[in-house]
């Protein structure tokens, strides 16, 4: 290894080397400094953590400051570290060092008082912002001289100062002093000091907070001690207060205890009245002082003055008193303590108030308000009388507590009274509640019973309409609602349409029945909720958050409250059950809603059952319809075969077919030629336009021929159109069909032999219709039968043509006479009256007598017809009366049998009367009505029966005798009058029978069955009148008939039993010719305004032997009654000037009981009301027009006691002797009939000649009883059909 070369040095190389060496030295120093800084920063952090730890460990500022000063000085290697504090309220111009750590070589600054006016003026703001002031050398800085001198006083050469902030206040300064030499303060050192100052500021805040806590703790401790002592005293008083509930005892004890504890001169309790006057209730006073209670007794205003002056302001306190001024309100709120006064003469009180206090001998007082709850009740007043007194806070608090306890005691006493009252009220409420609950239970039970009853009524029927009516009615009454309605949704309308189908509504609210409603909102928004149990409850529709349109809809039906529940048919929403309150809003109760829900469930079940029933019924109806159509077809065919009258066949067939098919129209169409035709018969609804009136018959021909082709009919094929709009019809054809409202139809051909005669058509107007095969088949079969009937009718028409020609004249004559009979009603009374008068004239020729007899017979026949109409009018007016009499039922039946027997025998019929043995002989009912009913029924049976028999059966179905046996001591039964008995009459015939559909026509006025119309007889009133008569007699009439077999008419009546002694003898119909000699002359007054009617009576009575006068009106009758004094007056009721009723009253008023005449009313009005009216007016009896002469004479005989001579008493003696020798077995001779009037002989001859058996027997009954032998001969000959013998005699007499 070689040696290193020596380095040479010269001036040129020395300078750069020195420079490089200096650079290296600085670099080395920097590296050493950087290396030494790292442990220094660590040391700073450790020192900072130590300071923070000590601050947290202790709350003593001196300890914190001392330890911090030591740590900071050692770490910064400073000569002094101190904490400087500014004096409070010095504006940062004075202060002192309160803690420091300083090297021994330097002077201590601790406790040094420093005044620095410059600091407060120039540097304070600098520190408020937390800035640090660093001075490396105070002598190199431009400091004020005074500040520099202060720093040099403490040997300071370099200075580092950080502010100590307590919150936002500058508390002091943290000062770092370098005294030995200047010093360059590093940034890290300043940051370290800043952090130390910040944490010391936190320590200052903590120490301040701890100090406050300690002060508060001390204060609280003292307060607690005082409170304990006070509470002991208060507790003692409160204990005494609580030992009693008597306010007087409480007040007395409290005032005594308070006065002794406070050593006061007087304690009182003062109570306010409502007007803020008041009175002292209780006081406790020391010896020597007057009693305010006693003063108050003698001076009523003694207590009121203070109230009026100041104390009333306790209610709304606003006066400031000395105590509240000194304590700024203290711990008390206004209203708890109102007035504390240490000296009344220094409190600026009003004169009146001071005078009042002087009367109380008070110089100082403390007045505490006593509140009963929040209401000012009175005052607790403590007075010091000897001198002024400073009231301590504890004393005031003590009094406040006592006042509060007094308020509690007063409130408790009040509460006790209230409790007692509440107890009594509670007992009353409890009793009411128990009663209400009992009533509620009763209501609930009643509601359940009502629910059960409604459900029971619902289940009794399957008719849904009846169910709805029952449910709505019951619900409305049970809920006391104004309307209950059932709303049904239109099927397939998605619940947008519907109508109310049932309701029960209270008057005067409107009905919603059949009202249709369209509500798309319901279907879209609410319908799906109702099957899930939704219930709409609206106590008030105007408070229900409803849309305006819905409110208007409800208001339209006057609804103010609404309850709606779904009606479900299975799971489907069928409708709604709606409960409406229309009068006022209504709060629906839960129990009501539940009740309605249960009803809705039951209605849903009923809907399901009704639906099932409807389906079953539809199936049953379909089956029944098929069977009925089969029966109907048989019936139609039978009816077609029963007659050969083509019009009858067409009428019956079209009507039957329309009813069977239930269509709107059935027609028979006949072809006249290949291109012409006509409608010859139709049955249609009443609203349809007759097809016979069609103006465009060629279009109808087109309808029947053009479509389909005529060949289709020729081939026996029908035309079936279910809907004209779906058929290939021409526009003109459619127009005609629409004109007659035709929508669907069937046309089937009618063949007569092999010729297409016409068509049988069935039409539907209202809608299209799918024609069933069975319907087409039925129509085809009927068409075939029509073809056969038409063919038979044509044959019959040829046979009848000759006979019809012969009968035409007779028919015209009969029609003329029938029409003319209706015009005879007005003169009927005069006709019959004069006929009876003329019949008595012996001077008439035989021809004249014959004419007169014809007039009489015609009038009587007209009278019968009029009587029928009159009876019918009475029935329709509801004025028909029952005239009960006692009569012999056996005699009535025998007379009827005798009267009808000849008529039956003439037709070859057996007339049989069967009477049970238990049928009573004497009964009490309306004999006339019973006779008329039997004559009508038996006469009809004989008239319509051609072969067989007519039977009348009479029996007593049930009799109700009652006997009540009383178990008395004698054990004798007591009989009770028998109740009405029931007698049944049945008329059976073997006639052609009556169709079932025509039975209802039997009891319609002026209506006749087909058989009746064919007979061309009668008015159609017989059976309607009979039905009414039977019902009046307490019974009912029924008809059963079987076509081709016969008819059974059955009725019953309720009647009473009669005694034979009660039977009235029959009136004699013998002709009166005069009065028996030896009787007085009677004055008869006839009062009648109609001259012809008046003349009838005048002629009738005057020729008999009475003295007769006439009066034209009631006024003349009154005058003649006074002047002439008649024995009897025939009084017409309706007359001008004065009617018969008023005239009767006046005559009765002007007469005495001795000279009062008999007055018998004459009137054409036979109604019971007028009869009662005239009898009430004073008439003695009543006769209806038109009258018969024998009734007139019988009435006069009854009231005047008359005896008459009769026409038969003047019979020649040779005739009587001849009649006595006639026996029933002898032949009829001229001598036998010559006794009868010529008119009678003429009529008898005609009746026998025309075989009018009824009239023959009626005329035989007219033969007087004295000619009974003649009557027996004629009856025997009629019974044996020996009409030739009768005619031989009558013709001879007529020719003579």
Automatic annotation (TrEMBL):
Q: Which residues carry this modification: 4-aspartylphosphate?
A: 1132
Family classification: In the N-terminal section; belongs to the phytochrome family.
Name the UniProt record assigns to this protein: Circadian input-output histidine kinase CikA
Q: Which compartment or compartments is the protein found in?
A: Membrane
One Pfam family matching this protein: HATPase_c
User: What UniProt keywords are attached to this protein's entry?
Assistant: ATP-binding, Cell cycle, Coiled coil, Kinase, Membrane, Nucleotide-binding, Phosphoprotein, Transferase, Two-component regulatory system
Q: Tell me where in this chain the Phytochrome chromophore attachment site domain is found.
A: 60-199, 246-405, 463-602, 645-785
Please tell me which top-level EC class this enzyme sits in: transferase
One Gene Ontology term, aspect cellular component: membrane
- According to the UniProt entry, the coiled-coil residues are 416-455, 610-639
What SUPFAM superfamilies does its record include? ATPase domain of HSP90 chaperone/DNA topoisomerase II/histidine kinase, CheY-like, GAF domain-like, Homodimeric domain of signal transducing histidine kinase
Enzyme Commission identifier(s): 2.7.13.3
Q: Which GO terms describe its molecular function?
A: ATP binding; phosphorelay sensor kinase activity
Query: InterPro entries in the record, alphabetically?
Result: CheY-like_superfamily, GAF, GAF-like_dom_sf, HATPase_C_sf, HATPase_dom, His_kinase_dom, HisK_dim/P_dom, HisK_dim/P_sf
Reaction it catalyzes:
ATP + protein L-histidine = ADP + protein N-phospho-L-histidine
Stretches assigned to the Response regulatory domain: 1083-1200
Known PROSITE patterns for this protein?
HIS_KIN, PHYTOCHROME_2, RESPONSE_REGULATORY
The domain of life for this entry's organism is Bacteria
User: Which intervals hold domain Histidine kinase?
Assistant: 819-1057
Do you know which SMART domains this protein is assigned to? GAF, HATPase_c, HisKA, REC
């Amino acid at each position: 290894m070689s040696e290193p070369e020596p380095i040479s040095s010269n001036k040129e190389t020395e300078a750069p080397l020195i420079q490089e060496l200096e650079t290296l030295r600085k670099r080395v120093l920097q590296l050493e400094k950087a290396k030494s800084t790292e442990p220094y920063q660590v040391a700073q952090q450790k020192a900072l953590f130590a300071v923070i730890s000590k601050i947290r460990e202790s709350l003593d500022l001196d300890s914190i400051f001392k330890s911090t000063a030591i740590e900071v000085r050692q770490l910064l290697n400073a000569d002094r570290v101190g904490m400087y504090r500014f004096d409070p309220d010095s504006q940062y111009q004075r202060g002192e060092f309160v803690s420091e750590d300083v090297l021994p070589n330097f002077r201590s600054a601790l406790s040094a008082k420093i005044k620095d006016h410059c600091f407060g003026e120039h540097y304070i703001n600098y520190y408020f912002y937390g800035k640090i002031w660093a001075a490396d050398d105070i002598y190199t800085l431009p400091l004020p001289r005074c500040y520099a001198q202060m720093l040099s006083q403490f040997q300071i050469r370099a200075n580092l100062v950080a502010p100590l902030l307590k919150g936002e206040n500058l508390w002091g300064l943290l000062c770092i002093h370098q005294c030995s030499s200047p010093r360059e303060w590093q940034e890290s050192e300043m940051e370290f000091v800043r952090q130390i100052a910040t944490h010391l500021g936190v320590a200052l805040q903590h120490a301040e907070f701890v100090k406050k806590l300690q002060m508060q703790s001390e204060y609280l401790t003292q307060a607690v001690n005082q409170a304990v002592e006070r509470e002991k005293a208060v507790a003692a008083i409160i204990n005494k207060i609580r030992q009693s509930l008597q306010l007087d005892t409480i007040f007395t004890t409290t005032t005594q205890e308070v006065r002794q504890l406070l050593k006061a001169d007087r304690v009182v309790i003062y109570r306010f009245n409502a007007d803020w006057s008041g009175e002292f209730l209780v006081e406790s006073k020391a010896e020597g002082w007057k009693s305010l209670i006693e003063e108050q007794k003698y001076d009523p205003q003694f207590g009121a003055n203070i109230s009026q002056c100041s104390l009333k302001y306790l209610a709304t306190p606003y006066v400031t008193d000395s105590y509240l001024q000194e304590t700024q309100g203290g711990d008390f709120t206004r209203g708890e303590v109102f007035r504390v006064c240490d000296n009344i003469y220094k409190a600026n009180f009003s004169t009146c108030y001071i005078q009042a206090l002087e009367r109380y001998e008070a110089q100082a007082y403390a007045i505490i308000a006593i509140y009963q709850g929040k209401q000012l009740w009175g005052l607790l007043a403590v007075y010091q009388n000897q001198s002024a007194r400073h009231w301590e806070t504890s004393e005031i608090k003590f009094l406040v507590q006592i006042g509060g306890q007094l308020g509690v005691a007063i409130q408790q006493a009040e509460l006790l009274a209230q409790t007692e009252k509440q107890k009594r009220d509670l007992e009353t409420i409890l009793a009411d509640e128990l009663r209400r609950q009992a009533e509620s239970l009763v209501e609930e039970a009643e509601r359940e019973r009502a629910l059960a009853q409604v459900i029971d009524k619902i289940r009794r029927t399957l008719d849904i309409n009846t169910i709805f009516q029952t449910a709505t009615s019951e619900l409305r009454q049970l809920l006391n609602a104004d309307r209950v309605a059932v709303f049904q949704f239109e099927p397939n309308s998605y619940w947008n349409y519907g109508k109310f189908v049932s309701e029960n509504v209270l008057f005067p609210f409107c009905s919603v029945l059949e009202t249709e409603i369209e509500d798309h909102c319901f279907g879209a928004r609410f319908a799906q909720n109702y099957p899930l149990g939704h219930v709409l409850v609206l106590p008030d529709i105007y408070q229900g958050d409803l849309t305006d349109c819905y409110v208007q809809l409800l208001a339209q039906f006057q609804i103010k409250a609404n309850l709606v529940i779904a009606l479900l048919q299975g799971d489907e929403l069928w409708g709604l059950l709606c409960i409406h309150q229309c009068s006022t809003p209504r709060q629906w109760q839960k129990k009501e809603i539940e009740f309605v829900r249960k009803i809705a469930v039951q209605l849903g079940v009923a809907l399901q059952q009704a639906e099932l029933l409807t389906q079953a019924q539809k199936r049953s109806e379909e089956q029944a319809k098929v069977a009925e159509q089969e029966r109907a077809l048989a019936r139609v065919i039978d009816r077609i075969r029963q007659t050969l009258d083509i019009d009858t066949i067409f009428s019956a067939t079209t009507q039957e077919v329309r009813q069977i098919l239930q269509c709107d129209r059935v027609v028979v169409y006949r072809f006249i030629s290949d291109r012409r035709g006509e409608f010859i018969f139709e049955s249609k609804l009443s609203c349809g336009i007759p097809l016979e009136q069609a103006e465009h018959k060629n279009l109808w021909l087109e309808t029947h021929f053009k479509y389909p082709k005529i060949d289709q009919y020729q081939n026996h094929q029908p035309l079936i159109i279910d809907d004209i709009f779906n058929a290939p019809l021409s526009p003109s054809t459619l127009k005609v069909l629409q004109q007659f409202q035709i929508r669907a139809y069937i046309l089937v051909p009618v063949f007569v032999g092999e010729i297409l005669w016409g068509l049988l058509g069935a039409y539907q107007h209202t809608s299209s219709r799918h024609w069933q095969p069975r319907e087409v088949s039925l129509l085809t079969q009927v068409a075939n039968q029509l073809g056969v009937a038409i063919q038979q009718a044509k044959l019959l028409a040829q046979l009848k043509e000759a006979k019809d020609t012969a009968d035409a004249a007779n028919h015209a004559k009969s029609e003329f006479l029938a029409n003319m009979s209706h015009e005879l009603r007005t003169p009927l009374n005069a006709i019959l009256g004069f006929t009876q008068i003329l019949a008595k004239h012996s001077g008439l020729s035989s021809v004249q007598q014959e004419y007169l007899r014809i007039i009489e017979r015609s009038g009587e026949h007209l009278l019968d017809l009029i009587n029928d109409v009159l009876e019918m009018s009475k029935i329709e007016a509801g004025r028909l009366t029952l005239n009960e009499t006692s009569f012999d039922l056996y005699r009535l039946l025998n007379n009827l049998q005798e009267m009808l027997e000849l008529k039956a025998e003439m037709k070859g019929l057996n007339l049989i009367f069967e009477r049970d043995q238990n049928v009573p002989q004497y009964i009490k009912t309306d004999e006339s009505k019973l006779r008329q009913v039997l004559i009508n029924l038996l006469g009809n049976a004989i008239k319509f029966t051609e072969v067989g028999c007519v039977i009348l059966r009479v029996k007593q179905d049930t009799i109700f005798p009652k006997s009540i046996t009383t178990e008395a001591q004698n054990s004798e039964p007591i009989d009770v009058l028998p109740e009405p008995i029931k007698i049944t009459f049945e008329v059976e015939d073997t006639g052609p029978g009556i169709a079932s559909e025509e039975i209802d026509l039997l009891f319609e006025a002026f209506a006749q069955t087909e058989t009746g119309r064919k007979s061309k007889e009668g008015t159609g009133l017989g059976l309607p009148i009979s039905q009414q008569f039977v019902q009046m007699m307490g019974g009912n009439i029924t008809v059963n008939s079987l076509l081709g077999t016969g008819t059974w008419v059955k009725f019953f009546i309720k009647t009473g039993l009669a005694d034979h002694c009660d039977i009235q003898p029959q009136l004699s119909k013998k002709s009166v010719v005069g009065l028996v000699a030896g009787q007085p002359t009677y004055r008869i007054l006839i009062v009648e305004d109609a001259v012809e009617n008046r003349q009838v009576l005048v002629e009738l009575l005057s020729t008999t032997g009475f003295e007769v006068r006439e009066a034209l009106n009631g006024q003349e009758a009154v005058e003649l009654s006074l002047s002439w004094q008649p024995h009897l007056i025939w009084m017409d009721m309706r007359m001008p000037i004065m009617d018969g009723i008023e005239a009767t009253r006046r005559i009765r008023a002007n007469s005495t009981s001795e000279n009062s005449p008999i007055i018998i009313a004459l009137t054409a009005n036979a109604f019971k009301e007028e009869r009662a009216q005239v009898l009430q007016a004073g008439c003695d009896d009543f006769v209806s027009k038109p009258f018969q002469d024998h009734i007139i004479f019988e009435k006069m005989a009854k009231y005047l006691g008359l005896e008459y001579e009769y026409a038969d008493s003047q019979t020649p003696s040779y005739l009587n002797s001849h009649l006595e020798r006639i026996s029933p077995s002898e032949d009829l001779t001229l001598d036998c009939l010559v006794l009868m009037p010529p008119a009678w002989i003429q009529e008898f001859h005609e009746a026998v000649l025309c075989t009018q058996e009824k009239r023959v027997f009626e005329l035989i009954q007219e033969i007087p009883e004295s000619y009974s032998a003649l009557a027996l001969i004629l009856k025997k000959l009629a019974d044996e059909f020996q009409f030739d013998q009768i005619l031989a005699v009558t013709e001879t007499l007529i020719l003579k």
